[in-house]
Amino acid sequence: MANVVVIGAQWGDEGKGKVTDLLSRSADVVVRYQGGVNAGHTVVVQGQTFKLHLIPSGILYPDTECIIGSGTVIDPAVLIEELDTIESLGISTKNLLISETAHVTMPYHRLIDQASEERRGSKKIGTTGRGIGPTYADKSERAGIRVLDLMDSEVLQEKLNWTIIQKNVILERLYELPPLDPATVIEQYQCYAERLRPHVVDSSLKIYQAIEQKRNILFEGAQGTLLDLDHGTYPYVTSSNPVAGGACVGAGVGPTMIDRVIGVAKAYTTRVGEGPFPTELDGKLGELLCERGAEFGTTTGRRRRCGWFDAVIGRYAVRINGIDCLAITKLDVLDTIEEINVCVAYEIDGQGCNHFPSSAHRFAQCRPIYKTLPGWQKSTAECRSLEDLPKQALDYLKFLAELMAVPIALVSLGASRDQTIIIEDPIHGPKRALLDANGAPVTSEV
Ligand code: IMP
């Protein structure tokens, strides 16, 4: 039995969907622990492509239980659409469980998210506009609507009648938007409640019972480390905790229950939305990565900003999450490039810097110090083992593993399941290297 957390080691969109899909095969339970419909992964079933935002892709395995945990925020309209889509393909959704203590995204959350972004003008965060920040803000304010409230018609009416009056003041006076009609919203959400009721459970109890039964649990993080509310590039972050520690809070399990943390990183870096990005490539190379990597957001369709691999944030992600091993994705996107840069450190005000600075202002001043490696200029899409890889590609992977002092367990070379090199079993394989007194890795396995 192993309980594993899978997290994004960069700014989200690292390809966690494919990695969790591969690992879901050996998981009995998959738990999504934070975020909401800001996340998105593309799933191909029976030749049809569709996008999931809340439901873990583990739902496609008939015996895998999928839990949307307490730390998530749920937009019922989107969740119901996902349920309907999956069921229309003849796939059962009876194994989907929804935490009764998750918070619910309401129409005013979306409206406020979008209106406040517009007001920020050039200082905007570049949110997905899905109401995520305002839903978490109400949770912290203790003014949120939980799934439990949604399930009790009287409580829902009472809470919404009061809350919508308050929110209408904000909508009308601050943002000059039309008010919401409480009765209409209540009626709509009562309908959602009936559709979702069969799935609602005490999720932390369910997870605890699964642990007692020695079932394998996969905790699936959405977004990535640098988008973490506490540890990311604040304020250009999301409003939840995608880091591995977030799994304990968001799923309701103790840290002693987690056996392993797998970090997912692209072979280069991308970011959507605003905020500093030291290794960003503006010119032709940036476009090439975007085109070859199909770097457009699943949720908003926005073009992702692209840049070289940044080992400073990589090492930071290893530290913050306690990453045991890495899955490197989209190596094939680099196939045609002659020379590949890797950021090994930053320079700020003429000084070298090996650590990620907490201040967004200082981070914006960081200039990358690159080590240039030769490209391989051969297709890797058909490689199925390390021996199949061109020497330069193997050297590139070795260099990343050495810089981050973490073994690479898996390499992905394309969207399909078989375009993967499994070096070591990511769940039971090697753990992170020990560091010597100078912070250098004692071992440097790929
Ligand atoms: P929010 O989560 O919609 O509030 O957006 C806050 C920031 O997180 C913005 O920069 C978004 O682009 C980014 N973001 C949110 N979800 C994702 C994701 O799933 N992938 C990548 N970026 C995301």
Spell out the key features of this protein.
446 residues; alpha/beta; ten-stranded mixed sheet; four-stranded mixed sheet; 13 helices; 20 strands; globular; binds inosinic acid
Describe this structure in words.
This protein is α/β, with parallel strands linked by helices. 32% of the residues lie in helices and 20% in strands. It has 13 helices and 20 strands. The chain has helices at residues 16-24, 76-88, 107-120, 132-141, 147-150, 153-174, 182-196, 203-212, 245-251, 284-292, 311-321, 360-365, 391-404; strands at 3-8, 29-32, 41-45, 48-52, 65-68, 73-74, 96-99, 103-104, 200-201, 217-220, 260-266, 269-271, 305-307, 309-310, 325-329, 339-348, 351-353, 367-374, 408-412, 420-422. It has a 10-stranded mixed beta sheet with strand order 9-7-5-2-10-1-11-15-19-20, sandwiched between helices. Strand 16 and strand 17 (351-353) form a beta hairpin. The longest helix has 22 residues, at 153-174. The relative contact order is 0.14. The mean pLDDT is 93. The structure holds inosinic acid. Inosinic acid is lined by residues 12-13, 38-39, 125-128, 130, 132-133, 222-223, 227, 236, 238-239, 272-273.
